[in-house]
Amino acid sequence: MKKRNEKSQISMMKLLFQDRKRSVVFLIFTLAVAIVAPFKSYIMQWLVDSGDLNRALLSLGRGLIVVLLSHVTEYVSRQTFVGMSTKAVEEIRCRIMRRQASQSMEEYLEGNTGTVLSSLTNDIRVIYDELYTSIFNLCFWGGMLVVSYIMLISISPVVALTSILMCVSVIMVPRIVAKQVSEARAAYSADISSYTGRVNDLLRGFETLTASGSMRYFLTAHEDAAASNREKEHTLRHNMNTASILMSLAVWGPNMVMLFICVILVFQGQITIGYLITVNSLLNYVISPCRSVADAFMKLKSSRSVREKLEGMMEEKETSQDGEEELTAVEKVELSDVKFTYPKAAKETLHGVKLQLLKGQKMALVGMSGSGKSTIIRLLYRYYGGYEGHVRVNGREAGDYTRESYYSHVALIPQTPFIFNDTIYNNLCLYREYSKAQVERAVKLSGLEEYVASLPDGLETVLTENGRNLSGGQAQRVAIARALIRGCGLLLVDEATSSLDVETTDQIMRNLVGLDCAVIVITHDIFGDYMKDFDRIVYLENGEVSEAGTFGELLELNGGFAQLYQLMAGQEEQAG
Ligand code: ADP
Ligand code: MG
Asked: Which of 9, 196, 254, 373 is the most exposed place for a label (fewest CB within 10 A)?
């Protein structure tokens, strides 16, 4: 435990001091303030003990130089540190996001975006305000403390010795309270994560909750989360206040004793009144730094939980989960005896699925809801790796290929597309370069042409958060265009036309079947003429392939598919 702690501390410190030049400037100027600032305590003594006007003026000049120097050096020290710490915070954020980018789809689905969001905002504040600021305080006030001590010793060793007492008591307090503060901080950090996740969920569900008259839930659910957060924050602040007051007491007690000793030294004629003033002033340079150093120690310890949490989120993965093969083209796709159970699920979802698709072939997956169609698509799109049997592309396991090469040849049109708060153009290209012809072709094939033409800003129209200014059908067409624009060897389509009218569905399905790549389409719309164009229709029942063949063959078989067809035909007639 101890070892890991040291490791994480070094790593965060490394980030802070990674810019060598800045670090050296910071250390030099901080040392300079530490030496110059305590001299301000002597100014009064220089003036009081100067004796005549000329020497008083000289002392004043000396005083001015000390004041000016101490402020200039402090300014440079503080500014340099701000540069170092903001850079380190940026680096932590980027490292956390790099780690996020390298996670597998499965890890992403298991994780919680609220936690990441909260770490990048709240936890990172703790690192800046507590860890880095404490390191600054340790250097800045610590240096001053040492120099002031040396000065005190030169004036009166007795006083300096007594003030050691003060240091001991001040250092003991953080040891006693830091653990409580650290625990309270960990509880607060965990709670703010779940608070962020909860609020995110509520805000995204606003439309659903309003429509179902559940706005009371919107408020009460938030009130519960806010109350829990208040409680955690209250405990944290309470512990911090206790620590702060205890530290102040630990400083002031011995300080009174020291002043008393000084007064006695004046009575005995061992020091002048001028020196008494200097000692009193120097004590301020001991008290303030002592408090700050003790406070910094406490914060350094109490921020440990957060530091370790962020360290874990920054750690580079030792073993890359990515494959090493390069996929250059899709020749053959094959699932053999695939059995799969979702992580944490009680029941197996796929019970030995077999299917095969060659270059350029078209396949439709049909089946009742819950029969495992989307699961097959998810395995082909490498959402999950923990299956039995084989999911192979060109005879190799899908996971053997590098993510980059795999996804540049395999594309997915999901059922509920994600729309970025950006222009239609960027939503289609997803920040990659395509030619004008490629964009136009995708817009046409996805049936977006008419809609885009009706917009004054065309492809430059900005889509609002989560595509709120799009209809469900338009959002689906954006997702279709997004996949088509890339051009690929295997296109996976999960009910991408479920929000579209019959005519548009017909058009898009014909476009999909007409593509020159291999296509696997999950569809409920089994009435269109396009069904006859599929090389193979696979009918799934309870996680197993129960029938497979062309449209004509399946109807002739008069099994599950034919029954579903007749059932839906009956419903169509009734509706019609
Ligand atoms: P379909 O697309 O055919 O409607 P799915 O493949 O989505 O069906 O789901 C098949 C089964 O797997 C369902 O019983 C569903 O409840 C279950 N399932 C789907 N996703 C998950 C998941 N993430 N975790 C656990 N079970 C899941
Ligand atoms: Mg599905």
From this structure: 9
Q: Which atom of ligand 1 is nearest to the CA of 375?
A: 6
Q: Which strand (E) or helix (H) includes residue 13?
A: helix 2-16
Separation between Cα atoms, residue 267 and residue 265, nearest integer Å: 5
Whether residue 490 has pLDDT greater than 90: yes
**Which of 45-59, 192-206, 225-239, 498-512 ranks highest by mean pLDDT?**
225-239
* Residue having the nearest C-alpha atom to atom 27 of ligand 1: 342
Task: For residue 116, report the distance from its CA to the centre of ligand 2, in Å.
Answer: 28
**Pocket of ligand 1, candidates 340, 369, 375, 495: which has the most ligand atoms within 8 Å of its Cβ, to mutate?**
375
Torsion of CA 437, 441, 443, 445, to 10 degrees: 180
Distance between Cα 368 and ligand 2 center (Å): 9
Strand (E) or helix (H) holding 358: strand 350-358
SS3 420: coil
* Count of beta carbons in the 10 Å neighbourhood of residue 437: 8
Close Cβ partners of 397 (under 8 Å, ≥ 6 residues apart): 323, 390, 391
What is the model's pTM?
0.78
Those residues with Cβ within 8 angstroms of residue 134's Cβ, 6 or more apart along the chain or in another chain: 295, 296, 297, 299, 300, 303
- Any ligand 1 atom below 6 A from CB of 137: no
| Predicted confidence (pLDDT) at residue 99 exceeds the cutoff of 90 | no
- For ligand 1, the distance from its centroid to the CA atom of residue 372, given in whole angstroms, is 6
371 Cβ inside 6 Å of ligand 1: yes
Distance (Å, rounded) from C-alpha 201 to C-alpha 78? 41
Q: Edge-to-edge strand order for the sheet containing 544-549?
A: 410-413, 490-494, 518-522, 362-367, 536-541, 544-549
Atom number, ligand 1, closest to the C-alpha of residue 378? 6
* pLDDT band at 295; cut points 50, 70, 90: confident
Which band of pLDDT confidence, cut at 50, 70 and 90, is reported for residue 77?
very high
Q: How many CB atoms lie within 10 A of CB 34?
A: 25
The DSSP call for residue 325 is B
